[in-house]
């Protein structure tokens, strides 16, 4: 799986586009695992939509090129992955 995921880490400059850069095979595998999990567990469709919106929003944020004050970053990284923490 690393051979496919490696594409996500190939970007020389970390920016928002890094959060959505994946190998097509990784996308197919990830979608299959998520779909199977949702079907087996019987998760409500609205819960899946909310999860995906939050997941993708945080992925865009933690791959962004945003610089925050160090004090704010130290607090936020207790709760979310900050851009500085992900570098």
Task: Please explain how this structure is put together.
The protein has 87 residues and is mostly helical. It has one domain. The two termini are 21 Å apart. The relative contact order is 0.14.
Concise overview:
The chain is mostly helical and 87 residues long.
Helix-strand layout with pairing:
Elements: H1 2-5, H2 24-41, H3 45-62, H4 70-76, H5 83-86
- Let me know the largest β-sheet: none
Radius of gyration: 15 Å
Low-confidence runs of at least 5 consecutive residues:
none
Q: Which structural class best describes the helix and strand composition?
A: mainly alpha
* Quantity of strands, as a count: 0
Characteristics:
mainly alpha, flat, about 90 residues
């Amino acid at each position: 799986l690393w051979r496919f995921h490696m594409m996500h880490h190939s970007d020389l400059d970390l920016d928002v586009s890094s959060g959505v850069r994946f190998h097509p095979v990784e996308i197919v595998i990830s979608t299959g695992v998520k779909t199977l999990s949702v079907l087996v567990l019987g998760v409500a469709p609205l819960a899946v939509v909310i999860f995906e919106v939050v997941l993708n929003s945080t992925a865009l944020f933690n791959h962004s090129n945003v610089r925050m004050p160090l004090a704010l970053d130290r607090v936020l990284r207790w709760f979310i992955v900050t851009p500085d923490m992900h570098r």
